[in-house]
Every structure is written in structure tokens, then in C-alpha cells.
Design a protein that fits this description.
Layout lengths: L1 H17 L3 H4 L2 H21 L1 H7 L6 E4 L6 H10 L3 E4 L7 H16 L4 E3 L7 H11 L29 H6 L11 H20 L5
Parallel strand pairs: 1-2, 2-3
Helix pairs in contact: 1-3, 5-6
């Protein structure tokens, strides 16, 4: 994903140079096509390195909240650690194995600098849930015989790619439904089940 974004950035820089080329300016049809492509990519390029400006406003030891699409998470975490910042990052952490490896390397670098990286699921840090679990352990609900949970929603649907814009940007604008930008839909399905299983382990000695 990040490699694709780098290619998009390189293409944007290439188009910018071409639009200043007199031979392109003289070819109105080509100039119009490049102008449209440049216009389509401009919003992404405006924020491509904006995270650096945001992190540079902080002081070493501050906390950076990384909560945007997972496709950008490794780059943001790496830069935060490089600048000496603690990190809280929301799930999902990366959309592909390459991104996960970068996150792991950033974690190793953070440990060497005595920096902390906290990660969602946010319910792990909830004092209210911890108190609830302790009450269950203490027998406030008696002997638990059955726990059942349902995930109820209308599902996530992504229609076919319409083909009238850059496909990468199209997926980034639909991160919940796309695998390229975040894998969030899969994570939302898997993480609650993982949390629920851990809740059972914490509360019910029969599962130990």
C-alpha cells in the first residue's frame, strides 16, 4: 500500500513537471488530460506529508495519536518514534504483512528509546470494564452457565469500481469497505470475538 502511495506521489511530481513543459502546454488535449489527473491527485498530496508537520509541533515525550487509515499507520508510527514520541495507535495496525513488519520494527526502536506504544482495543484500557470483570470474578452474577453474543449490523458492501477516478484514491475514500486502506471491516469482525473469548477466560475458571 505504502509503495503504491509512493508511486502516486512520484506520478504527481511527474505531472507537475509536465504541465510546465512548453510542448505539453502547446498540446491542449494532452494538457487538459494531465490537468485533470493533477487535480484528482492534489487533495491526497496536500495531506501526504502533513503528519510530519503535526508531529513536529510536539515535544519529545509527548503522545502521538495515530488513528487514521491503517495504510498510513507504519509511516506515522515510525516518524513519531524517530522524533522521540510515545504513541497510541488505533486498530487496525497495518493492511498487509509488510506494514506489520514495519510496525514491529518501530516497536523495537521505541523500546531502545524507552518510548511506549499503546494499542487499541480501547476496551482493554477501560477501568469500567475492568471493574465489571472483577465483580463477575467475585461472584456478583453467581455461577455463569452460558454467555452468548451477537454482532448485528447491516453488513458492509462495496460496489464495483466505477473506473472514473484513481482506484487507489477511490479505496482510500472508502476505508471501512476496502482492504487496501485499512482492512477495518475484517478487524471489526475478528477483534470483538477475540475480546469476547478473553472475557470468558478472565471471568470463567472453567476455560482456564
Amino acid at each position: 500500500m505504502l509503495e503504491r502511495l509512493e508511486k502516486v506521489k512520484a506520478r504527481f511530481e511527474e505531472i507537475t513537471a509536465l504541465l510546465a513543459d512548453p510542448s505539453i502546454v502547446g498540446d491542449q488535449e494532452r494538457f487538459r488530460q494531465l490537468g485533470k489527473e493533477h487535480s484528482d491527485l492534489t487533495p491526497l498530496m496536500k495531506v501526504f506529508d502533513a503528519y510530519r508537520k503535526a508531529i513536529d509541533c510536539l515535544r519529545p515525550g509527548d503522545v502521538v495519536l495515530c488513528t487514521t487509515h491503517a495504510a498510513f499507520r507504519p509511516r506515522h508510527v515510525e516518524y513519531a518514534v524517530e522524533k522521540g514520541m510515545h504513541v497510541f495507535m488505533e486498530k487496525t495496525f497495518a493492511p498487509d504483512p509488510g506494514g506489520v513488519k514495519r510496525i514491529l520494527r518501530a516497536g523495537e526502536a521505541a523500546e531502545k528509546k524507552n518510548l511506549k506504544i499503546a494499542a487499541g482495543v480501547m476496551c482493554r484500557h477501560s477501568s469500567a470494564r475492568q471493574a465489571l470483570i472483577q465483580k463477575i470474578r467475585d461472584g456478583a452474577m453467581g455461577d455463569i452457565q452460558l454467555i452468548r453474543a451477537y454482532r448485528m449490523d447491516d453488513g458492509y458492501r462495496m460496489g464495483p469500481f466505477p473506473g472514473n477516478e484513481n482506484e487507489l484514491l477511490w479505496q482510500i475514500r472508502r476505508p471501512v469497505r476496502g482492504l487496501v486502506a485499512s482492512c477495518l471491516h475484517l478487524c471489526r469482525q475478528l477483534v470483538p470475538r477475540s475480546w469476547f473469548r478473553q472475557l470468558l477466560r478472565w471471568c470463567c475458571s472453567c476455560l482456564e
